[in-house]
Amino acid sequence: MRVKDDIKRDAIIGATISLVNEIGFAASSVSKIAKRADVSPATIYIYFKNKEDLLVSTYVNIKVSMANIILREFDHTMPVRDAIFLAGKRLYTYINGHSELFAFAEQFGNSPYTDLVDKAEIEAPFKPMYELIQHGIEQKIIKDVPFELLFAHLYLPIFNLVNPRLHPNFEVTPEIVETSMHMAWDAIKL
Amino acid sequence: MRVKDDIKRDAIIGATISLVNEIGFAASSVSKIAKRADVSPATIYIYFKNKEDLLVSTYVNIKVSMANIILREFDHTMPVRDAIFLAGKRLYTYINGHSELFAFAEQFGNSPYTDLVDKAEIEAPFKPMYELIQHGIEQKIIKDVPFELLFAHLYLPIFNLVNPRLHPNFEVTPEIVETSMHMAWDAIKL
Amino acid sequence: MRVKDDIKRDAIIGATISLVNEIGFAASSVSKIAKRADVSPATIYIYFKNKEDLLVSTYVNIKVSMANIILREFDHTMPVRDAIFLAGKRLYTYINGHSELFAFAEQFGNSPYTDLVDKAEIEAPFKPMYELIQHGIEQKIIKDVPFELLFAHLYLPIFNLVNPRLHPNFEVTPEIVETSMHMAWDAIKL
Amino acid sequence: MRVKDDIKRDAIIGATISLVNEIGFAASSVSKIAKRADVSPATIYIYFKNKEDLLVSTYVNIKVSMANIILREFDHTMPVRDAIFLAGKRLYTYINGHSELFAFAEQFGNSPYTDLVDKAEIEAPFKPMYELIQHGIEQKIIKDVPFELLFAHLYLPIFNLVNPRLHPNFEVTPEIVETSMHMAWDAIKL
DNA sequence: GATGAATGAGCCTTCATTCAT
DNA sequence: GATGAATGAAGGCTCATTCAT
Fold first, then answer.
1. Of chain C's two ends, which shows fewer C-beta atoms within 10 Å, N or C?
2. What is the pTM of this model?
3. Whether residue D42 is found in the same domain as residue D118
4. Residue pair A71/A87 in contact by the 8 Å Cβ criterion
5. What is d(CA C154, CA A49) in angstroms, rounded to the nearest whole number?
6. What is the pLDDT of residues D73-89, one digit of tens each?
7. Does the beta-carbon distance from B110 to A114 stay under 8 Å?
8. Residue D85 and residue D42 share a domain
9. Residues 6+ apart with CB under 8 A from D111
């Protein structure tokens, strides 16, 4: 028998990402994705249970890989401030180098499909970040407020500004990121 | 007779909002909206050019009314900091009192439909806000960085945290808003 | 090795019968049958030319085995009336003991697939029955009318009443069968 | 607005009947039916809730009309035997004159769709027949056995023989019907 | 012989929109 | 202005069958 082909699976995921970015979430039908992946619609159902599974899997894949790239070799002994700035820079680098993946994730993150995602699976890779923040709070370096608030102020602005759909005329440069990180730090530092 | 028309138009818009919040953007078809508005599908095409027009109009309506409520009687002589905190509080009040409108706007704002919106029309009512910030910069009270950065740090965190889809287990209280505004102020103040 | 083959073939036929009885004729797809038989879809095409062949073969198998059981040791010297009653009782016994096979055959017998069956192959095993009837006619015990008419009056009522789809609230007991055979005999006897 | 068109409804039902008779139940898809009725597939869903509803409605229509034709002006004072023979003749006439309707009903009656039919609705029009039989039993003219048995012996043979799928080489003539009715009467009479 | 991957065709149904009244 | 009927196109998905191993 033929063997399941990772190349084919990747082609399907790739087609999904590029198509969703191009024509939007709602307009991306299974048969269009299949056509772009140069595959029969039926083949998609060999690799994924259904359309929902395809989209969710694609999203989770992206999110996990993003976390791994941003938080790789995260040093617990590094000063909190330095670690946070480092993560910010890496986030920017990631987005710049994988703009398609990022754009897809943003679109997905605000669609109703998000409800179907296992949140725990996505948040797990960010655990080192949580620990870092916790450490900062204990050292009285960071404000003692809910995590959600700290994260929102830290990285949401960049996530938002970098989105071309939301800010078509605003280009995020490394300098902008640097500035944003400084502002964020002012927001969360004690 | 005008009155009758407006009632019907409002019924359609109302049905659109509640349906989208209930079953999501993609599943909200014209005929379902028509049924909920107790109107024929064909009637919708009398008041709106097409589905896209209906959704965009609904969105713009909401955005404009939101700006008006938040920025009403905005006093230019008020200290910058006080004005910004006031806007934050009003934003929270608005979201709490019009959760359906807000939820629709958030869903719309991240759909591909956003591309079809005339950005200028939406941003116009926020002009007083721009002027206030500009004033703060000139007075050396606020950091001299792009507007987009300032706005992103000011209000995005709350917009994000208040979204139940994104934070199903996090409740935003007036205290949280107060805290967030303080953090935001730390971020943007010079 | 032959044994292994036959086991697999029987597994496929068994899966076909049970699945058709469970979810109906139309819903019984080749891949579902394969799954139930614990076999690859492709394997089915080794033992049967196609789906049609699978179904028809299953049907013919059942029909032939049914005839053999009902008419085994059929004694030509036995009085016509006794032989006919005996066949009736055996028919009932068969149906009770092989309700799955019978149910499948009934469903198949009224589907368009029937057209594909070689009628001669199915009717051949019933030859002793034909001869018996013929004998009865010659002896002026049975009405001299077309065979089809005689058979229809003899056994159709039981076939029909025993079908749970057609008579969900009617239970056929040995007494009912006895009664039906008496009525049938009244119908065909001279 | 346009008005719902009984002609169109009838065209759909007619197309359903002729197509099912031609290519069988399973192969009769909604789009093929639509094409034959010279109508869009979507139009079918205006007149019927779904495919199942279309088929069931068609069947019930046929069954009810059949009963009405066979049992019209059924005279309660007529001798039981005469009434039964009359019904038999009318049944034959009906089948001859509406062979398409009859063929559809037979195919439907043995499909899994039958489970979806409200049995009461179909049996109601046959009530006069029930009463006649009941009358015959009370007068000690007919055997005192369950109704189902009596009906099965009375009309099943003809229903079966007249079915060209089951008996492609057997032609039912008025004489055959007459003979069958005589046999049936012998079966049920006391 | 046996397998699971792979497929184009087709399934039922709903869509956004227009037509006729 | 308002309606419900009407539609071609497209939706997600499964089918019977064949391919490559």
1. N
2. 0.88
3. no
4. yes
5. 53
6. 777 778 999 999 999 99
7. no
8. no
9. C25, C26, C110, C111, D25
